[in-house]
Amino acid sequence: MIWEQETQVIVMTTKTVERGRVKCGQYWPAEESITEEFGDFDVYNGGIEHFADFTITNLVLTNKKLGTSQDVVHMQFTSWPDYGVPHSALAMLDFRDKVRLKQAEAVAAIGEHWQGHPLGPPIVVHCSAGIGRTGTFITLDICINRLEATGLIDIVKTVERIRAQRAYSIQMPDQYVFCHLALLEYALSRGLLEDVDLSGFNDDDSESE
């Protein structure tokens, strides 16, 4: 899929193992300067950048049948607990900004070769089940893009549209509340709001994958 869609950025919102349970396979080399074989493809780890809440790994994907390669940036958010939401909306917003920056850099590097959507090839986003944390990140990204383009946000309709394509996206109430809080934080950080009354928001301790 990554090769077929010419994906340049992968967003992973889970660890491979959480609370002793395997949440996702290790589909890329975990150590720098290592190449691993996955069927018809070789994946080379060209370097890792470590941040407080996420890691960025520069990969090279080689199609052994064709003898050609493409760069892929793997971005893993590591501070999202197995049960709950990120401890900081700012950390998630910083991560999302880095994702968009890496995508823009990749599109610029592709140049005229890319003739598709102006924002570039699809960004692949995944967690374990692909609905809770994945849905939360995608909702934030879509809403921020719309806010920047139009000055408007509609979280309800955004979630409805996502769920029409991926059932049960945003599994738990705490994830839905987190989307609102993160978007408020984003608006405050950009000077779009002067003050916010959060008295209507209540923390929810429901489990989320």
UniProtKB/TrEMBL annotation:
Q: Name the SUPFAM superfamilies on file.
A: (Phosphotyrosine protein) phosphatases II
Offer one example of a GO biological process linked to this entry. neuron development
Look up the domain of life of the source. Eukaryota
Stretches assigned to the Tyrosine specific protein phosphatases domain: 93-177
Q: Which residues form the Tyrosine-protein phosphatase domain?
A: 1-186
InterPro entries in the record: Prot-tyrosine_phosphatase-like (IPR029021), Protein-Tyr_Phosphatase (IPR050348), PTP_cat (IPR000242), Tyr_Pase_AS (IPR016130), Tyr_Pase_cat (IPR003595), Tyr_Pase_dom (IPR000387)
**Name of the protein described by the UniProt record:** Tyrosine-protein phosphatase non-receptor type 9
Q: Which organism is it from?
A: Stegodyphus mimosarum (African social velvet spider)
